[in-house]
Design goal:
The chain is of the alpha+beta class. The protein has one domain: 3-Layer(aba) Sandwich (NADH Oxidase). The protein is 43% helix and 18% strand.
C-alpha cells in the first residue's frame, strides 16, 4: 500500500483523480494470459505477438494497472488529466524501485484493445490503460538501452 500511496501523490490539477488502480495478483494475471490468446486471434495477431504478450502476464506475479479515468471538467482539459495518469505510472514505478523491488512499465497491444480492457480489467467505456507496472523480485535486468542525445533535445535560454 505505501507504493500506491506514493503514486497517488502525483500532480493532479483540480484534484480530480482522473486515474485509478487495478491491482493484479497471480490468479488474475493467469486469467489475463488466457484472454490474450483469444483476443490475439480476434485481432489477427501473429503467434509471436500473442506469445510475447501472453508471457507478460503468465510470467508475472503482481502488476498494477493504472487506469486513465477522465473526469468532466470545464477547467481541467483531458490532456492534463492524461498527463496526471502518466505521472502516476512513473511515480508508481519509481516507488517500487525505491522500495527495493524490481519493476517495469509495460503496455503492449493488449493494453490498448477495448475487448481486453473491458472484459479483462473491467474498464468502463470512457477509461483506458495508462500503464501496466509489473512489480516483483529483481532477477535479471535487461541491458540499458540507448538514451536520447540531450544536446539535441534541450534548448537553453539565458536572456
Amino acid at each position: 500500500m505505501p507504493i500506491l500511496t506514493a503514486a497517488a501523490r502525483s500532480p493532479d490539477h483540480g484534484k480530480l483523480e482522473p486515474w485509478r488502480f487495478v491491482v493484479l495478483e497471480r490468479g488474475a494475471l493467469l486469467r489475463l494470459a488466457a484472454l490474450i490468446e483469444s483476443r490475439g486471434l480476434v485481432l489477427g495477431k501473429t503467434p509471436e505477438e500473442v506469445a510475447k504478450m501472453r508471457a507478460q502476464f503468465a510470467d508475472a506475479h503482481l502488476a498494477v494497472t493504472v487506469v486513465f479515468s477522465p473526469k468532466p471538467s470545464e477547467k481541467i482539459p483531458e490532456v492534463e488529466q492524461l498527463l496526471s495518469a502518466g505521472a502516476v505510472c512513473l511515480a508508481l514505478l519509481n516507488a517500487a524501485l525505491a522500495a527495493g523491488w524490481g519493476a517495469n512499465w509495460l503496455t503492449g497491444w493488449a493494453a490498448h484493445d477495448r475487448g481486453f480492457a473491458e472484459a479483462g480489467l473491467g474498464l468502463a467505456p470512457h477509461e483506458r490503460v495508462a500503464g501496466l507496472i509489473h512489480i516483483g523480485a529483481e532477477t535479471a535486468a535487461p541491458p540499458d538501452r540507448p538514451r536520447p542525445d540531450l544536446a539535441a533535445l534541450a534548448t537553453w535560454i539565458s536572456e
